[in-house]
Amino acid sequence: MSSSKKYISALAFGVAATALLAAGPVAAKVEGDTIVIGSAISFTGKYSTNGIHAKNGYNLAVKLINEGGGVKVGGKAYKIKIVYYDDESTPARTAQLFERLIKQDGIKFTLGPYSSATTKAAAPVIEKYKVPMVEAEGASRSLFTKGYKYLFAVLSTSEQYLASSIALAAELAKKAGKKPGSVKVAMAFENDPFSLDVRAGVIDDIKKHGLKIVIDDKLPRDLSDMSATLTKVKALKPDLLVVSGHSKGAATAARQIKEMKIKTPMVAMTHCESSKIVKKFGASVDGFLCPTQWAETMAYKDAMFGTAAQYDALFKKTYDGYKNVPYQAAQASAAVQVWKDAFERAQSFDTEKVRDALSATDMQSFYGNIKFSKAGNNVAKPMALRQIQGGKYNVVAPAAFASHKVMHPRKAK
User: Which of 103, 102, 87 is nearest to 46 (CA)?
Assistant: First the structure.
């Protein structure tokens, strides 16, 4: 079944997909035996690839919860239904739609949009109306410096994404008998909140380990051409190329690295899986390093999905076309699990009692441990670094999670 057909069939298990122009308000916070959760997320526009991955993750968790007896509150079992609007990958639209969800549709519980930029637009709205949100796709660390009380994120923050590649480059230099200061780094980042936070983490670790920056570029706005940066890479021959530009930026980088025959020994970039660079570019991306919030080889498990590997298998069985399950989908499923856990501990649908239950979350899941700081970010789960090896994504760092040894230098083809 195609992804579009899966989206339509999601209605069969109680997930309502609506358009902005749908007539009349939809269900309020609880309707009969159904808990209604709202989200504005990107089904069109630049974030649509990952928006659909996240929607699939949300829907899969709803399906399992509803089929497994639902959410138990006050001696009664409730199903979950999600109301979606398409924010078209536009932050201003995201804010408008969360206003609509809360003021017109009567929604009292929300799931986040896709991306840090859209989550930044939604956060002041849910804070204004004191409506809790569990979000899975906004990683910008600046989200958690504003004093928000109703925003809770299951994922690790963005400054951690590519920092591990810097530590790995320094470690490999030492093993080769070189000083970390001899390692040259080229950087290319999109000018958006997420990527700039990733860059900040990279800069911090470059200073920590003493590496040398030789290129520090911003990707062009449309993310369709980074040949100017890659021409400099060819000339300056850095040891490590670091890129962050969401799915479109990753696909552009992988394509042009292949076309321009870039031989940089290490390449690290965000959004490898969601942009499907292995499927699109084959052996030319072997050796790329890709940060991940989650991997199916990690030793996480819970009572609902089982192990990380079992979640991976179930997701692939449910949704056609996935060779690798994007972590964006896994963390979306975890966000829905957090809602179930909070409702059942609160034993109430009062938003303040549920908010307090969310703030006290301390749970294990197939995705990893989840515990929120006072700022609302998850402080219990590390990032991992996967490397594409023979077309497969293998965890190579940190050592505690590594399933394979790192390939260095990468075998550029």
Answer: 87
Count CB atoms within 10 A of the CB of residue 164. Answer: 22
Q: What predicted TM-score, i.e. pTM, was given to this entire model?
A: 0.81
Q: Which of 178, 287, 191 is nearest to 241 (CA)?
A: 287
Listed in sequence order, the residues at least 6 apart from 396 whose beta carbon sits closer than 8 Å to its beta carbon are 168, 289, 385, 386, 387, 402, 403, 404, 405, 406
AA letter at 183: V
Residues in the chain: 413
Contact of 92 with 121, CB cutoff 8 Å: yes
Rounded to an integer, what distance in angstroms lies between the CA atom of residue 172 and that of residue 196?
26
Element containing residue 40 per DSSP (H, E): strand 34-41
Contact 275, 250 (CB under 8 A): yes
Region 221-243 average pLDDT: 95
205: Cα within 13 Å, side-chain hemisphere: 21
b/e code 165-203 from CB counts within 10 Å (16+ = b):
bbbbbbbbbeeeeeebeebbbbbbbbebbbbbbbbbbbb
Q: Cβ distance 250 to 243 under 8 Å?
A: yes
> Which domains are present in the chain?
3-156+296-371 (3.40.50.2300), 162-269 (3.40.50.2300)
Instruction: Please name which of 125, 123, 116, 137 lies closest in space to residue 56, comparing C-alpha atoms.
Output: 137
Could you count the other beta carbons within 10 Å of the beta carbon of residue 83?
21
Evaluate whether 42 touches 88 at the Cβ level (below 8 Å): yes
Mean pLDDT is lowest, of 21-25, 51-55, 265-269, for: 21-25
